[in-house]
Design a protein that fits this description.
By secondary structure, the chain is an alpha/beta fold. It is built from eleven helices and ten strands. Strands 6-7-8-3-9-10 form a six-stranded mixed sheet, with helices on both faces. The chain has a domain at 28-122 and 197-278: Rossmann fold (3-Layer(aba) Sandwich). The model is unreliable at 13-23 (pLDDT under 50). Bound molecules: adenosine-5'-triphosphate and magnesium ion (MG). Adenosine-5'-triphosphate is lined by residues 46, 51, 69, 71-77.
């Protein structure tokens, strides 16, 4: 073969590979560098308005990171970019050291281990708590097929484990629609956990919860820390304080970029942060 033909072949192979990486089936995520999520200089514009402006941040494996910032700072848009709902105009988003999330579709990103919780709970109201978890476990089967598929003992064990984590052991047969707002939120988190995501993104998870439910949610997240990486967006500073335990880093977003990063007590004392957010 001539060098020209070899080069041509190599180029075609590379092109083919770049297409096939979008197939998630069997794809491995490597966390060798200890990094779960790497976001570098992402910019998103809506009709010329920059919702994200060269936003960069890194989340470590097992880390629990709280993100705070005023309304419109770009917190939800950042989650939209990580989960494939919005495509940034430029920048990089990597899951682990090897998976380029900007090349995957929304379902593929979920499948590869990134779970997302929206603010409003989205559980199947007419089904029981147990059935909701069962469905989440077999999300790829479709509702009817999933409900008729018998669970193995390992899967039942997993449901038990998650029920305990989300404090719903006593409500297994209860119709989800009858749960309190907080319990529905926990059930949805439980549904995410059934897929055992490596990275969990939680957008304002305690909005509308009672003080007691908020405290229990913080306990739940602290239990998940280490086994999963968690990115928690919240306005409730008491909750953030409970999660960070005086030693974890928080990130403050403002106008689509990181305004400050550090211990909660430090960013709370930061003049710029007080001016744009906490002081109001
Ligand atoms: N699809 C869209 N089209 C146009 N503008 C948008 C769109 N999505 C978000 N924006 C704008 O981008 C900015 C960032 O919004 P985003 O929802 O990310 O803020 P946020 O930090 O989550 O705020 P909040 O704390 O209120 O939830 C806002 O000014 C918002 O109006
Ligand atoms: Mg938001």
């Amino acid at each position: 073969m001539t060098p020209d033909l070899m080069a041509d072949g190599a180029e075609r192979l590379a092109r083919h590979r770049s297409k096939t990486t979008s197939v998630v089936e069997g794809e491995q995520v490597y966390f060798g560098q200890g990094v779960a999520l790497y976001v570098d200089e992402i910019t998103v514009s809506f009709d010329g308005f920059r919702a994200l402006n060269k936003l960069s941040l890194t989340i470590d494996v097992g880390e629990l990171r709280c993100i705070i910032g005023p309304n419109g700072a770009g917190k939800t848009t950042m989650m939209d970019c990580i989960t494939g709902k919005t495509r940034p105009d430029s920048g990089t988003v990597f899951f682990g050291s090897n998976v380029d999330l900007l090349r995957l579709s929304e379902p593929q990103i979920a499948q590869i281990g990134v779970g997302r919780k929206f603010q409003k709970p989205t559980v199947y109201e007419q089904l029981s708590v147990f059935e909701n978890l069962e469905l989440a476990l077999k999300a790829d089967r479709g509702v009817r097929a999933a409900l008729f598929h018998r669970l193995g003992s390992e899967q039942l064990g997993r449901i038990e484990e998650v029920l305990k984590l989300i404090h719903l052991q006593g409500e297994v047969q209860r119709t989800a629609g009858l749960l309190s707002h907080g319990q529905k939120q926990w059930l949805e988190i439980g549904m995410l956990l059934m897929q055992d995501p490596k990275l969990l993104l939680l957008d304002e998870p305690v909005a509308g919860m009672t003080d007691e439910e908020t405290e229990r949610t913080a306990e739940l997240f602290l239990t998940l820390e280490g086994k999963h990486s968690l990115v928690v967006v919240e306005h409730d500073m008491k909750f953030v304080d409970q999660l960070t335990q005086g030693r974890k880093k928080v990130t403050v977003l403002h106008e689509g970029s990181v305004l400050a990063e550090g211990l909660l007590s430090d960013v709370q004392a930061n003049e710029k942060v007080v001016e744009v957010y906490l002081g109001r």
